[in-house]
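dumping this here so i dont lose it
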């Protein structure tokens, strides 16, 4: 999907202005909002509540009413519902089975913040149930899942926002970065480096009793059957209150069975902005080279040989050959953020700063009026949910559409495959398949565990 298929400037302005003026969406003939919604605010439900699930819910209460929650951990379900009640004065109906949410006719949209391995199944079934979808990043566990979601979005006509909030929030630093590039402030791009942090391995994590209140079989869902594992030490800070070393809450990001490690976690943010800036959102790389990497366990034929420790990469340097033979470097070293280098200069951007001489030069040579809005495709929304709701009104796709997200995420998926197999991969971005490597192509899809297939 190209930029032209996102919100038009006019329709975006009409809807966003209505939201800004009254805090609600004015009704339209093509609105999908429930007819009995107070003030015609959309009715939402959140599936997967821990950490980011509450974060996106909390941000969205300004624009939507939450009627239902679903989580396989009853402890989380109860705690988050108490937070919602304290903030809005009303708790949501709580379910352990997300399908109960999808059965309800009063739900306009679902927000999905489950572990990655659940994203595709819930997203597809939600769209088929007539719901618009906001799903956290990274959207998929495999490239085949991305293709399936694209197919169902097209089939159902549902609006689908991916939670790559850097496209909307963070004081618009990333939008300004792209505007700088489009204005020619660094000349022609010669190299882009995405620093996405390294990770740590883990000690041996033993199988232990499943915590009370957690439906472990449901948590695993489409993933392979496995024992619940944890060590006694608890995590502190963000995501705290759970075991520091586990294959469940929070730490699931370090396991290929449920996620893609740092490559997909932070890569889904910074590789997204880099790909957008390069104008490669409709294509992608043609070659992925694993220059260096470190895995915390031994691998054979692309699979970890043990199941009791984290298995995603701890260090890496990946080179993706982008259109125009521009190298996109994805590295665990250096500052977290994106360094753009061109024929006339370079600058760095992350969530905390936008720095470099081209940025300093803006004091005397500002960007043209409307340059940031031109990148965004219209007035920049207050937050990512506001953009989603504006798209729900217009029935056009939002700023983080599934097509551009999947294209950039293919780079991250391919990087992980290259690391797992220990070799360079040639990629055909038109056919969306690995060239001349049957073993590598076998990693583009993954079977769901029996009983958890997608209900089509």
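and the seq i came up w/
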């Amino acid at each position: 999907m190209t930029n032209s298929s996102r919100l038009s400037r006019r329709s975006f302005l009409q809807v966003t202005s209505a939201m800004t003026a009254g805090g609600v969406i004015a009704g339209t003939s093509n609105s999908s909002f429930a007819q009995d919604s107070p003030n015609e605010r959309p009715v939402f439900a959140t599936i997967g509540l821990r950490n980011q699930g509450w974060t996106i819910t909390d941000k969205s209460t300004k624009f939507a009413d939450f009627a239902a929650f679903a989580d396989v951990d009853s402890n989380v379900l109860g705690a988050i519902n108490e937070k919602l009640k304290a903030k809005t004065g009303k708790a949501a109906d709580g379910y352990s089975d997300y399908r109960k949410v999808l059965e309800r006719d009063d739900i306009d949209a679902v927000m999905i913040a489950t572990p990655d391995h659940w994203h595709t199944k819930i997203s597809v079934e939600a769209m088929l149930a007539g719901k618009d979808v906001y799903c956290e990043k990274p959207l998929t566990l495999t490239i085949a899942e991305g293709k399936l979601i694209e197919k169902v979005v097209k089939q159902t006509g549902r609006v689908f926002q991916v939670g790559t909030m850097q496209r909307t929030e963070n004081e618009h630093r990333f939008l300004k970065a792209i505007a700088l590039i489009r204005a020619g402030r660094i000349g022609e791009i010669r190299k882009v480096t995405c620093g996405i942090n390294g990770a740590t391995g883990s000690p041996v994590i033993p199988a232990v009793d499943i915590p009370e209140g957690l439906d472990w079989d449901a948590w695993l869902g489409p993933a392979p059957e496995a024992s619940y594992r944890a060590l006694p030490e608890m995590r502190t800070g963000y995501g705290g209150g759970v075991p520091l070393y586990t294959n469940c809450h929070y730490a699931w990001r370090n396991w290929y069975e449920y996620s893609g490690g740092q490559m997909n976690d932070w890569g889904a943010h910074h590789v997204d902005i880099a790909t957008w800036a390069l104008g490669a959102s409709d294509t992608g790389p043609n070659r992925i080279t694993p220059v260096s990497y470190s895995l915390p366990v031994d691998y054979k034929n692309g699979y970890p040989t043990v199941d009791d420790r984290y298995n995603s990469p701890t260090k890496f340097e990946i080179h993706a050959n982008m259109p125009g033979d521009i190298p996109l470097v994805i590295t665990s070293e250096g500052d977290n953020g994106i360094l753009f280098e061109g024929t006339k200069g370079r600058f760095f951007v992350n969530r905390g700063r936008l720095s470099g001489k081209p940025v300093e030069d803006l004091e005397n040579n500002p960007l043209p009026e409307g340059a940031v809005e031109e990148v965004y495709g219209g007035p920049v929304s207050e937050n990512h949910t506001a953009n989603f709701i504006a798209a729900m009104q217009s029935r056009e796709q939002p700023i983080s559409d599934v097509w551009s997200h999947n294209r950039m995420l293919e780079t991250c998926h391919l990087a992980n495959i290259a690391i797992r197999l220990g070799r360079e991969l040639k990629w055909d971005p038109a056919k969306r398949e690995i060239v001349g490597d049957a073993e590598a192509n076998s990693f583009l899809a993954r079977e769901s565990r029996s009983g958890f297939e997608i209900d089509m």
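The mean pLDDT is 92.
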